[in-house]
């Protein structure tokens, strides 16, 4: 029900494996597979500081020459033509002192439509050695925020093919066994007896590790016994969670390689897809979210892969893995992020006449679904942070008013989002009000997963009544498959009506979530919504490739 143009903040890489795959600092150029694919290739740039700083200097193999953009200007880029479509597994950026604080790495088949394979908002210069996954003829480094008053400057941009760190495909690592269960731990500190590090790997969510209170940074380290390839880390936070932290791996417990970091942690359960290997794994908290310390019920790690089986080619949208794809698509439309689980705490007024918009699906204070959500939450847990606001929610329902709500309500919402009861209730309401009715109707109309998603996304933005009206207009034009019509023709008619409806509201007048996403899948003939998926929305490019 909302369009929020927040850019990626909680992740440092694009989602590529049904979850979050993070580019990590681990490979060195010497260990890269094959030769530098960018060396001596044609290159263009958004600007040049002056003679001697041309973009070709960044692919000449010398660290005594460099490309430099105009000073004092953001949104600058350098683009390399690799000559043909190429699989890219590693990108090495060697920054001069004028480095990017925020940038992204993208690939393209045509130099026009870009797919993001890495992004960060916490760049720190020097050498960035990034493990990525993508393919294209062109590669672009796109700086969005300078770290200095100057421009952007790179000594070298290096590109390499298949990564040697990938596990042997004939012996895939176990993705269902917790590699940390019962393993030796060490910690930076302990709050007191009963809160030792071993409590975070004992398999119980009734025990926990807790650090001393009021002190940053703090860490917990687990010895996995031998080198393990890690594809997923699950952190189950107590109320004393980390706002900023990183996950690292190490071969010797001394030199660490980062596989994930965030500065926008919101507690609860963090289920992270990562990519790295080492004997030791460490969770390193750099900023507390509360006045207390850091506390984890459990830290779990799993081998490369997902515990959710991949969807079959013809699976419906309610298949667990395909539903995960649907959630990521909607999150890219609503929050410019594929990390839909990071949106439980989201709340703002986007000025669309619906009052507050909040949570994973955009529950609105002016349309009744936020009220329904809080009422159901309160039925389950009467003493919750949002219960005192029920009278005000009933009063503002049907309006865009904030009367009786305001900042204290926003804070209460964010506090409630740390409660697993509330997050579960959000998911239940999403399914009850939007997902299940839309998917059910699509199945009745004979539509496959793409059509089921088109119905669901329409319900998210326009509500059940609005979605039904759009469908009725489409049915009046073209028969759905269940009535003997052509599925592709019907879906084009439905998306036509959807875009027309969106243009009626200024807040929803940008129709790219249809025109350059769902319509693209349809034009590609991807009626089953199978991966890989590439799309763009509001000028940002996204992908789910495996």
UniProtKB/TrEMBL annotation:
Region (Disordered): 161-207
Boundaries of every F5/8 type C domain copy: 26-162, 170-304
Any GO CC annotation of this UniProt entry: extracellular region
GO biological process: carbohydrate metabolic process
SMART domains in the record: FA58C
Lineage: Bacteria, Bacillati, Actinomycetota, Actinomycetes, Kitasatosporales
Species, as recorded: Streptomyces davaonensis (strain DSM 101723 / JCM 4913 / KCC S-0913 / 768)
Protein name per the record: F5/8 type C domain-containing protein
GO molecular function terms listed in the Swiss-Prot or TrEMBL record: chitosanase activity
SUPFAM superfamilies: Galactose-binding domain-like, Lysozyme-like
